[in-house]
Design brief:
With 221 residues, the chain is α/β, with parallel strands linked by helices. 27% of the residues lie in helices and 25% in strands. It has helices at residues 34-42, 58-67, 83-91, 113-120, 169-175, 185-191, 211-220; strands at residues 3-8, 26-27, 30-31, 48-53, 73-78, 100-105, 129-135, 140-143, 149-153, 159-161, 165-168, 196-200. Helix 2 links the parallel strand 4 and strand 5 (73-78). The radius of gyration is 17 Å and the shape is globular. Cytidine-5'-triphosphate binds next to helix 3.
Length: 221
Amino acid sequence: MSVWAILVAAGRGERLGLDRPKAFAKLGDEPLLAEPLRRLDACPWVDAMVIVAPPGWEEPAILLAEEEGCDKVRACVTGGETRSDSVRAGLTEVPGDAVVVLVHDAARPLVSDEVVERVLAPLAEGWDGVVPGLPVGDTLKRVGSDGGIEETVGRAGLWAVQTPQAFAADVLRRAQANGAEATDCAGLVEASGGRVKVVDGDPRLLKVTSEADLATVREWL
Ligand code: CTP
Ligand code: MG
């Protein structure tokens, strides 16, 4: 079966607040994007890859892939206004005979072969999609605009989900048609009636949002 990875890197990184998109923030001597790019390229379960780059950053993304010797990269496309738009842009480059699409946030640099293997396995049992997640540990409160707690939300059965997320290619294509929107791809597939399973994620799949997250990932490396 052929597995195509879509590496979404087209966000602006507003919360990081740098003079460049988050994918090109410095992580050591390299842009952040280099890490997930190299890892997915070296992953034995990934056959081919599409990079979704921020507008105006397509050329640097392609050059980076070349410098890193990432020979599974088949295309680099320009991202859209939302994450769902960027996934849609990436999917246009995934050929019709791809069986599985793996969507990964470039903002989670420390993707591993093990987690890719964990999200791919249940597809063979008939699941439409599989996502990595961690059970929520903190107590959850719904808070009003004045800062007052409105309610305590039971955390039983609540998971914080991560990427890489794996889908049967045809299911993801159908789910993202007609400009559907969700904060992750699983949300699109759920909304279109697909069955999505959660498997164990990894704390190291931390999504870099702030400067502190960037420092944490640098330390882990
Ligand atoms: N992403 C994307 N296209 C968008 C928005 C997000 O490809 N229009 C990607 C980001 O590059 C990131 C992932 O989706 O790899 C998760 O998004 P997020 O962490 O929110 O990144 P940004 O949108 O860049 O950050 P911010 O929300 O702070 O601007
Ligand atoms: Mg964002």
